[in-house]
């Protein structure tokens, strides 16, 4: 589904103050997986996601999405950004249908699909309002609808819940899991929250900085549906310890 | 609060006019040096039969010049903001063109284009196009990276991105430029009328001062200022009515 081979991304000119954001990234995401890219800030996880989405290009290496080269605007990928990025001059509904209109699809069918999506996340009644009247959580919900409007097989999400308050975040985490269970979309999810990654993912790629790389690829052997209690299961605790040892190294192991 | 905000300026203006009237009266300043408010009022009434004609003439010059200016400046602003080559080739020239004091070239323009409406239109254009062009270019270049990412992820074409993201984002900037532009257009119209015209408020001012009729000149100035404010407010009103979302961030009252 998504296949990255020897991907390297270097910013600046090599030799003269260049910065290696990603090095030797090899990652395969199969259809229907929920893969989290987990790591501290500066480990290149957002850059990696941008490369999958075609918003950035690798300096070397091959990125294949659905047997084609990754490219910006690939219709089978829906992108959710860290911030909602709703355009203030469009209504919520118009924002949701924006990706359709960008490629020349307009009409009642698209509007109906957008309204269904908004209804699914409880935003049906604000569909015709402008986004500045919505709370942060509502805006991010609308932006998820926008990513889903063309019914892509793949959803890439860059810390989509990190700017939300704790309660809204939890709510959206469970909504997203429900969506994943129902639609079996492939999801690549960037996060710096260990518990968020364990709670939602089928697999976690733990990333490490300088240069950005995948330090450990962990399959999460927890069944669905999951609840907050899932995090207390022995498997979850084991994974949590494993991830922490990678992120913090020997520091915490000795302490 | 609203009542106070409305009444206070009226009160301060009344006091100022009263003081002005008193000073002229007490110091017995002759009317050809400094007319008192009442003199100006009387002169205004005297000339009021002719005022609509002059007002109309100036208004036509302002609106035509401003309209032409928008038609030239907005596309030019778009061109220099989206095309590096166009920007490098033309921007320095445009800065230079704007740096020339229009008063200085106005007589040259009259020689080249005659003493008619055409010359006044060109003078007007030269005065008012620059801020509109710069505001347009600034707005388009100011488009947040986030918006461009969204546009890119949505497979927008270059034109699609310009129309659906960059231009709407530039709207509040363009309106700021329009508000400055319309005021400059009024100045441009008056300059044009000073140099070549037989009607218009600028002509009326010039004609009155050559006859030492300061009262009438000042009455014309006041009409000019009121017209200017109404034009400025009209642009604000247009923005509020058509593009209400663009008000929040940039409203200046």
Q: Concise description?
A:
Chain A has 255 residues and is α/β, with parallel strands linked by helices. In chain A, 35% of the residues lie in helices and 24% in strands.
Q: Would you give an account of this structure?
A:
The complex is a heterodimer of chains A (255) and B (253). Chain A is an alpha/beta fold. Chain A folds into two domains: 2-76 and 152-254, Rossmann fold, CATH 3.40.50; 87-151, no CATH class. Helices cover 35% and strands 24% of the residues of chain A. In chain A, β7 (154-158), α6 and β8 form a beta-alpha-beta unit. In chain A, α7 (194-200) crosses α8 (234-248). Chain A is globular and about 50 Å long. The N and C termini of chain A lie far apart (41 Å). Chain B has 253 residues and is mostly helical. Chain B has a single domain, classed as MetI-like fold, CATH 1.10.3720. Helix content of chain B is 82%, strand content 0%. Chain B has ten helices and no strands. Chain B has helices spanning 2-27, 37-47, 51-82, 84-99, 102-113, 117-141, 145-153, 158-195, 201-210, 214-242. In chain B, α3 runs antiparallel to α4. The longest helix of chain B has 38 residues, at 158-195. Chain B is globular, with a radius of gyration of 22 Å. Chain B starts with a helix and ends in an 11-residue tail after the last helix. Classes of the chains: A alpha/beta (255), B mainly alpha (253). Chains A and B meet through α3 of A and α7 and α8 of B.
């Amino acid at each position: 589904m998504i296949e990255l081979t020897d991907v390297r991304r270097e910013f600046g000119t090599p030799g003269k103050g260049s910065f290696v954001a990603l090095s030797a990234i090899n990652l395969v995401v199969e259809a229907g997986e929920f893969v989290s890219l987990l790591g501290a800030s500066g480990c290149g996880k957002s850059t990696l996601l941008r490369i999958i989405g075609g918003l950035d290009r690798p300096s070397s290496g091959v990125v294949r999405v659905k047997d084609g080269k990754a490219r910006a605007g690939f219709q089978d990928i829906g992108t959710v950004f860290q911030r909602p990025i709703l355009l203030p001059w469009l209504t919520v509904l118009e924002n949701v249908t924006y990706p359709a209109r960008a490629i020349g699809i307009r009409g009642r069918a698209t509007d109906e699909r957008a309204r269904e999506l908004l209804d699914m996340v409880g935003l049906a009644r604000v569909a015709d309002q402008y986004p500045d009247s919505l709370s942060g959580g509502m805006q991010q919900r609308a932006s998820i609808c926008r990513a889903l409007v063309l019914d892509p097989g793949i959803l890439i999400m860059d810390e989509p819940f990190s700017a939300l308050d704790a309660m809204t975040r939890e709510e959206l985490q469970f909504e997203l899991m429900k969506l994943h269970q129902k639609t079996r979309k492939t999801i690549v999810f960037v996060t710096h929250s260990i518990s968020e990654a364990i709670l939602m993912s089928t697999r976690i790629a733990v990333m490490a900085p300088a240069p950005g790389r995948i330090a450990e690829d962990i399959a999460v052997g927890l069944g669905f549906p999951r609840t907050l209690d899932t995090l207390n299961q022995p498997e979850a605790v084991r994974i949590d310890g494993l991830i922490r040892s990678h992120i913090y190294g020997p520091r915490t192991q000795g302490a | 609060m609203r009542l106070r905000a409305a009444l206070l300026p009226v009160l301060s203006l009344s006091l100022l006019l009263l003081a002005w009237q008193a000073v002229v009266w007490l110091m017995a300043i002759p009317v050809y040096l400094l007319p008192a408010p009442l003199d100006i009022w009387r002169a205004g009434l005297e000339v009021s039969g002719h005022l609509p004609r002059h007002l109309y003439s100036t208004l036509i010059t302002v609106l035509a010049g401003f309209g032409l200016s928008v038609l030239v400046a907005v596309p030019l602003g778009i061109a220099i903001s989206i095309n590096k080559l166009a920007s490098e080739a033309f921007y320095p020239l445009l800065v230079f063109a704007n740096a020339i004091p229009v008063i200085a070239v106005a007589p040259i323009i009259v020689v080249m284009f005659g003493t008619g409406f055409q010359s006044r239109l060109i003078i007007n254009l030269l005065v008012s196009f620059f801020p509109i062009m710069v505001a347009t270019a600034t707005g388009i270049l100011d488009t947040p990276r986030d918006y461009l990412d969204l546009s890119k992820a949505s497979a927008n074409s270059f034109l699609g991105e310009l129309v659906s993201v960059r231009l709407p984002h530039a709207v509040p900037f363009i309106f700021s430029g329009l508000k400055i532009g319309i005021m400059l257009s009024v100045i441009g119209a008056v300059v044009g009328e000073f140099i070549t015209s037989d009607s218009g408020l600028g002509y009326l001012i010039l004609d009155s001062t050559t006859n030492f009729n300061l009262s009438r000149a000042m009455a014309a100035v006041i009409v000019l200022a009121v017209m200017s404010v109404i034009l400025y407010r009209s642009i604000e009103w247009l923005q509020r009515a058509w593009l209400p979302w663009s008000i929040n961030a940039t409203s200046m009252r």
